[in-house]
Design goal:
Length: 484
């Protein structure tokens, strides 16, 4: 506050002069003289103790009369300055890497260029009033070349950045920039203004209900009383209307916005083409940052439009937020909702609901539904891939196949139904006879094979022995059966 007051007098009159410790002489501009009985100078102090002990000293403090007049005059007159903010020594790659952190992609700068771009900084004073008052200052920085708002930074307000105005300021398009700044300001304060107004409306309703309830009781009591109750009731009704009007006025919301000043800022803006890449996709995006903020604006999800603090590059090449993507449960493949909806890039296993990508999804040949590798069955006879509900167990060899290859009524598979005679010296038979002495003397054998199993039947006089052998020669099933 003291720095502001000192700067005000330096610009509008002359620097403050310290007449005694903590007490300063101030020259008053023409605009302030009427408020101080036409005096051309006054004595001020920033310390309440000094103001209380020294003679003819005005205190400069929050809410003081003098400070309010200074602020009012400063914001009414304003001034225009030009500032230049040049690019920092940090490389574009370092600046972008500190701002953009993709969740699943490597980031690299393909190309970058820096230009000095004229901006207009509009400074507004916003005042909202009900039974309370809120004063705040808002600044809107407008890129005059692109016609867009840019985020403000503290360095924009430093006076040391001032430049001569000759040949620098181009007022073309300032009206459009001002309208854009007003729209941005309105959007910025709208939520706060609504909350402030709603709070005042709630207080107004409560106050009016209290007043109405009180006077209704008083009027009824007056009418019930003997004597001049009617006259008293009319007087109370008039008082009630007056009090209601006062409450209405007290909590009435008003909002004011005033443009304080405008500053031209020549801001170095760096534009860069940035590549995001991983094994499944590559995307080049144009980004930019200015020398005041040194921060790239946030990226937006191309699915929902929300800010993506940790952008994800889906395998379809889209930029999305973590909430709008789904990853394969078995690999690093990830797709956004757009890819999933239009292309079915990620499917849920019908059994366990795990997400699987096209590289890991298996489709049931009979139902056309998707399954993960843990819940799909490949029939060893026909090669069909089927889901669990289309798997049947052969009652003879006890192996699982698709329902097409296992036929009722005996529920036997096609392999078991195609057994044919083979000699004892068949390689598979010979291997089984060699391993099991009890089968060495069996002379009659039947055999059938599919892609995964070989079914053998050793014929006996009454009982037969059925064996299921895998390609390695391991016996998986061996049991006695009556007929085949």
């Amino acid at each position: 506050m003291e720095r502001f007051v000192r700067a005000y007098f330096e610009r509008h009159a002359s620097p403050l002069r310290e007449e005694e410790p903590g007490v300063f002489a101030a020259s008053l501009p023409e605009s302030l003289r009427p408020a101080f009985d036409g005096a051309d100078s006054i004595r001020i102090a920033f310390d309440p103790e000094k103001a209380a002990t020294a003679a003819r000293v005005d205190l400069v403090a929050e809410g003081s009369y003098l400070l309010d007049r200074v602020v009012e005059d400063a914001t009414r007159t304003g001034w225009h300055t030009v500032a230049r903010i040049e690019a920092s020594v940090s490389s574009p790659a370092d600046v972008i890497a500190s701002s953009v952190r993709p969740k699943n992609a490597a980031l690299s700068v393909v190309s970058a260029s820096t230009d000095s771009v004229p901006h207009l900084l509009f400074n507004f004073r916003v005042r909202m009033m009900t039974d309370e008052r809120i004063d705040r200052f808002e600044s809107v920085l407008v890129d005059t070349r692109a016609g867009t708002e840019r985020r403000c930074a503290a360095c924009l307000f430093e006076e040391r950045l001032g430049l001569p105005e000759e040949g620098v300021v181009d007022w073309t398009g300032i009206a459009d920039a001002y309208r854009l700044a007003c729209g941005a300001l309105e959007a910025r304060v709208q939520a706060d203004a609504k909350a402030f107004r709603d709070q005042a409306d709630a207080l107004r309703r409560s106050e009016m209900e209290r007043i109405t309830s009180y006077f209704e009781r008083s009027v009824n009591e007056a009418l019930d009383s003997k004597g001049a109750g009617g006259a008293e009731a009319r007087a109370l009704e008039l008082e009630r209307e007056r009090r209601l009007a006062e409450a209405e006025e007290k909590y009435r919301f008003t909002g004011e916005v005033e443009l304080c000043n405008v500053r031209t800022v020549l801001l170095d803006v760096t534009r860069a083409d940035v590549a995001l890449a991983h094994r499944g996709a590559h995307r080049v995006i144009s980004m930019e940052y200015d020398s005041a903020n040194l921060q790239v604006p946030p990226m937006f999800c191309e699915v929902c439009g929300a800010v993506a603090a940790e952008p994800v590059l889906c395998f379809g090449g889209h930029i999305a937020g973590p909430e709008c993507v789904k990853a394969c449960a078995l690999c690093d493949r990830v797709h956004c909702r757009t890819c999933i909806t239009t292309e079915g890039a990620i499917a849920a296993c019908t059994t366990c609901r795990r997400a699987v990508c096209p590289d890991h999804a298996e489709v049931c040949a009979l139902s056309r539904r998707a399954y993960c590798p843990d819940h799909i069955h490949t029939c060893a006879i026909c090669g069909r891939t089927v889901g669990p509900e289309y798997v049947a167990r052969c009652g003879s060899c006890e192996q699982s196949y698709c329902v097409v290859c296992v036929a009722p009524p005996a529920e036997r598979c096609l392999t078991c139904r195609s057994l044919g005679g083979v000699p004892p010296d068949d390689p598979v038979v010979a291997n089984v006879r060699k391993r099991d002495p009890s089968l060495a003397k069996v002379a009659k054998w039947r055999r059938a094979s599919n892609q995964r199993f070989t079914v053998l039947v050793a014929k006996g006089l009454v009982w037969n022995v059925l064996l299921v052998v895998d390609p390695a020669g391991t016996v998986l099933v061996q049991k006695k059966v009556l007929g085949t």
